[in-house]
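re: the backbone from monday

yeah here it is again, tokenized this time
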């Protein structure tokens, strides 16, 4: 019985001895630094919309996270009616050109000059219809990455619709919201540690901007202050990923 009691006392002593430095280490770490958990990867985002045409999306060529090149196809709008319009006008133009050839021997006639004028007008109309047809092919205006696809196959879109949102990787930064009580520990140029929650990537960051009008801060009645932080290394930090910001007090 005494041996068992001695063993328990020794075991308890070991636990206490090991726990004390761990406890004080934890307390010391919390005292010297704090973590901002309301943070995410942001960037300069642009919305890509159809130009001048409306219709149903029949094909999507990209998805969220895909890299795209300037001019690359993003989506296709149903082009059935636009193709039919081009074919109809092109057919009419071909007939008129054939008729103009037939009148070639009467170049001074009123019929010839009148038809020639009509053909010039129709040629411009054909080009316009071809241009409208080309607008059913929605292409990327920049080299970038798809931040979010806003529509899917079967959805109807118009020039006021956003098909996808794109961003340039070079523009990404961390957007954080710090409790006003901890704002006193922040200043422009201060170095912080950034950890991407999704990918486990880690990088140093530098505070670039404090404060500013922000929907998040307004909705929280001024309890949080927005902070913009640049990344020393962007590798592994993806748009909209949640981030932990570790700040030394």
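seq for it, each position gets an aa:
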């Amino acid at each position: 019985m005494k041996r068992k009691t001695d063993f328990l006392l020794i075991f308890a002593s070991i636990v206490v001895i090991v726990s004390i430095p761990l406890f004080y280490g934890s307390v010391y770490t919390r005292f010297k630094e704090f973590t901002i958990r309301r943070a995410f990867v942001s960037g300069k985002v642009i919305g890509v919309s159809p130009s001048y045409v409306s219709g149903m999306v029949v094909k999507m060529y990209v998805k969220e996270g895909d890299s795209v090149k300037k001019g690359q196809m993003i989506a296709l709008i149903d082009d059935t009616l636009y193709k039919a319009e081009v074919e109809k006008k092109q057919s009419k133009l071909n007939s008129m050109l054939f008729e103009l050839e037939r009148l070639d021997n009467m170049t001074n006639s009123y019929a010839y000059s009148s038809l020639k004028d009509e053909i010039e007008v129709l040629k411009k109309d054909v080009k316009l219809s071809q241009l409208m047809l080309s607008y059913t092919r929605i292409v990327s205006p920049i080299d970038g990455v798809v931040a979010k696809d806003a529509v899917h196959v079967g959805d109807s879109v118009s020039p006021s619709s956003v098909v996808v949102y794109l961003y340039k990787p070079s523009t990404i930064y961390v957007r954080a919201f710090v409790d006003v009580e901890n704002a006193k520990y922040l200043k422009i140029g201060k170095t912080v540690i950034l950890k991407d929650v999704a990918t486990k990537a880690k990088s140093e960051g530098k505070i670039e901007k404090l404060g500013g009008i922000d929907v998040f801060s307004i909705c929280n009645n001024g309890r949080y202050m927005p902070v913009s932080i640049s990344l020393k290394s962007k590798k592994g930090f993806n748009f909209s990923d949640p981030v932990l910001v570790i700040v030394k007090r």
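The two ends are 52 Å apart (CA to CA). The chain has a mean pLDDT of 87.
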